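Structure, all three chains, one model.
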Amino acid sequence: MIEVTGIKEIIKPENLVYKKTKIMTDNTLSYCPGCGHGTAHRILAEVIDEEGLQSQTIGVSPVGCSVLLYNYLDVDIQQAAHGRAPAVATAIKRLLPDKFVFTYQGDGDLAAIGTAETIHACNRGENILIIFINNGIYGMTGGQMAPTTLPGMKSSTSPYGRDVKTMGNPLKMTDIVATLPGTYYVTRQSVHTPANVRKTKKAIRKAVQYQKLDKGACFIEIVSNCPSGWKMTPVQSNKWMEETMFPYYPLGDLKTPEE
Amino acid sequence: MAKIRGSIVVNIEKCKGCEVCMVSCPTGTIAMAKEVNGKGYNYAYPLNPELCIGCANCAMVCPDGVITVYKTKI
Amino acid sequence: MKKELRLMKGNEAVAEAAIRAGADGYFGYPITPQSEILEYLMEANPAETTGMVVLQAESEVAAINMVYGGAACGKKVMTSSSSPGISLKQEGISYIAGAELPCLIVNVVRGGPGLGTIQPAQSDYFQSVKGGGHGDYHLIVLAPASVQEMADFVDLGFDLAFKYRNPVLILSDGAIGQMMEKVYLSQQKERSKVFPDWATTGKPATRERNIITSLDLDPNGMEMHNHKLQAKYNEIREKEVRYEEFQCEDAEYLLVAYGTSARVCQKAVQLLREKGLKVGLLRPVTLFPFPTKRINDLSGQVKGILSVEMSAGQMVEDVLLAVNGKVPVKHFGRMGGIVPTPEEVVENLKSKIIGG
């Protein structure tokens, strides 16, 4: 490994405060520079590591940018057809109820083609964790309009901006699933600042605990960036996300257990 | 009073130069190198290593997990 | 061991056989004429006895993807539907074939295209044996001709599915699904507690992580994978051909038919023999692999072949390939949910093959 280091005398095992978890493989992530997917993967991996869940975890990856999730997380993973991850996860959890089962899906996967599977898995109260990455665009196919694309927002299939009269309105899936009796914990977070990363990781940890207690579906939306699709630098994209995405998709818990 | 000092290690070849670590660093320790790595990215490096407090903010937001953080009291 | 005798519908026999085969899960969606499978399983409630999971999904699409998820855990899982529903499952079936997952799919065929009719048909032959979904793949296709075979092929289907890591399709039709016959049921098997080594069951420290996917972005890798699949299909072609012959020993003319049509043809053979015509019947039991070699052999013996199907003529193409021009091959079929009569078969054999 080629490295640059700060003050060498401090770099001793006993001084270590942060190191990439071993649940993340050494494969180079296929994501564009600054993409939130990598951070979301990492904190999920950290929770799996810290909770000692590697041997208990079965993940489901979607079609989309995170289709290759199985290259990056050192756990058993199934790659599902576009939008069908919640159905796939339903069967896994029903047949192996002691395992920790999660899906990791983008907005096109979860909120367009997989709307039915998402709503019904949540409505049945399937005891799974759904992680929903919302960056308002189809990333992998080259920046087309997603169900979550904001009004007026440009994409390769809404080149003049999303016209809600002809293209429909952004779909707030997280708000919808929060209304379903089958969901136990529904929250919307982000991973673009250290504080937000910590909050999101805490949410994942909560969801793991709830799944252990057989509480029903947990749903964590992560509002994220797509620097390439949005045609911005990573730093600009995070700023734009705060200014433009967050007002439409406000961060915070939508449904919390009564404790 | 004890002073907290930190130090980071950046895996240059995996860094994609996104600069998210740089803007999240509260002390201005990190900058982007003028040189590029094997993929052509200007990678992150500790321009002002003596300013590092080992808060791990940079590692926390690094999408590619390329930063390792150490911290000690002096 | 003495087997239990019951009078059952074909659909009910599938359901009961699934429980007794030690199936781990069934995921279905209602559609006529196969809803009895889901209804029977819900009523039998095997969760209480064998621990089998039975779930009514929100769609056929969800159901087949539940099968994907369960199969990828190394579990014995299945789904059933009828033609329009099977069309919806094709994407999932292609993924299952690509990821090489064992599972059982039952198609109780009805007439089409489109919403068609709820009456029996055999017009899903191409979809069943030629792929159905996208990509180069094959299902192992079993064609029952009785309620007994509806039950027996469940166990056989699971065995073949796991032996080859390949989806197996029982291609039935509305007649066999709905009719009642006596059926000997096998003993209750225990559900397996052992997982195949490729299954996603949670990665212990002792092995690498298991990945279930049909994706390989590297075309060289994808071609290798396809070669591997083709080698498997060739092995299946070599080892798993099943068929039944009826009065073929001295036959001068041959009928080829499967499922319900084969039952009709059996009567037709009887009628023709009464008239002094030496006619035999070959009934393919596996439609993939097709009994190509046997039909080719018989084409050296007979003067002509009539393929009888409840379709516009689909299997006849495989018969033609098998015969390879040696003797005339014609098709007779009824469509849209109509079952041909033995008399119609007799007439058509005479007019199309025997002549005069």
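The CA atoms of residues 22 and 70 of chain B lie 17 Å apart.
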